Amino acid sequence: MLTSKVAKRYAQGLLDFTNESGQTATVFSEMKDVVKIMAESVDLNKFFHTPYIDSKKKVEVAKEIFKGLSISSQNLITLVIKQGRENQLKNIAQEFINKVEDINGVQRVTLTTATQLSKENLDQILRSTNLVNPNSNFDLNVNVKPEILGGYILRVGDQQVDASVKSKLNQIKKDFHLN
Predict the structure, then answer these.
(1) What digits encode the pLDDT tens for the residues 47-102?
(2) What distance, in Å, lies between the first and last C-alpha atoms of the chain?
């Protein structure tokens, strides 16, 4: 997923601040909550994306929704809204999470399959590739997309292994048209 320059800059500023103040772990956990809330609440996203609602009203609502967060996290959310960047709030929080995980050496692994797999099958796929370092921490995100027909697509960082039936059929189709 491409991240906007705005999200990267706010996340880096927040990371710099939390490193100086020793609040990185707390804010990291809270940004996970922000991402979860923003991902699950369609109404909140619509509210934040509505241009004719005053930023003061948006700040009031955000303070009520995020009242359990630390002052640092609340101040970031308020700043983002006052600057008219509330549509980037989820991206900023996710980028902050990514930056902290990068510092801690956590690999982000995305596995796309046609059907839900068992734990044993997931482990077997992860062991079968040299992209995933078995000695490091990794964050596994499993997506189920029936349109790939079978097999899997494994993405680790900027590298990808496409072992899906759909891509193999497309390659056969392409080869057939060339010959």
Answers:
(1) 999 888 999 999 999 999 999 999 999 999 999 999 999 989 999 999 999 899 88
(2) 36
Which ranges in 1-88 belong to alpha helices (H)?
5-21, 24-40, 42-49, 55-65, 71-82
Of 129, 30, 32, give the one whose Cα is nearest residue 72: 30
Burial label for 16, CB within 10 Å (0-12, 13-18, 19+), is exposed
Residue from 109, 125, 110, 94 nearest 31 by CA: 94
Cα-trace Rg, the chain = 20
Helix (H) or strand (E) holding 112: strand 107-113
Task: Name which of 94, 110, 117, 101 is nearest 159 in CA terms.
Answer: 110
Distance from C-alpha of 38 to C-alpha of 83, rounded to nearest angstrom? 18
From CA 26, how far away is CA 155, in angstroms rounded? 29
Number of residues that make up the chain: 179
